[in-house]
Structure prediction request, 161 residues.
Amino acid sequence: MTAPLAIAAADLFPNGISHYAVGGVLVGLGVVTIYAATGIIAGASTFLESTLSYASDQRRFQQYRASRDWRVVFTVGIVAGAAVYAVSFQGGGWTTDVQWWRLLGGGILVGIGTRLGKGCTSGHGVCGVASASPTSILNVGIFLAVAIGTAQLVQALGVAP
Prediction:
């Protein structure tokens, strides 16, 4: 019985699972650190909104103004971490075959979904589910269903990067 499971795991994770496990531990440690230090649940969409408070006077962005400085450091850390990884392990180059306009369109759709879902996968998926929030559990179920459906549709249509 373990042989089919090993084959399925090899198909799903051809490069192994260790880097996923390390990434998960690092995300968990980051969430715990932010919560322990500030009492705030670490959702990335909130961090983006607080960063936008520097450039916009809209009320929705100003609600996080009092705590925006450390949130900006967090946001910059996400981008810097990706850059350090790209330079260290990917030779510093672009690491996807997906066209820039598809990435931009996907980013816009994710942003819209984040607003509709009142949070992002980091807030709902990591923090909300861990705290047994019914809203977060529902949202994560919707995230997964839409992602699986989209992946199946894209594959059925034969869309390539």
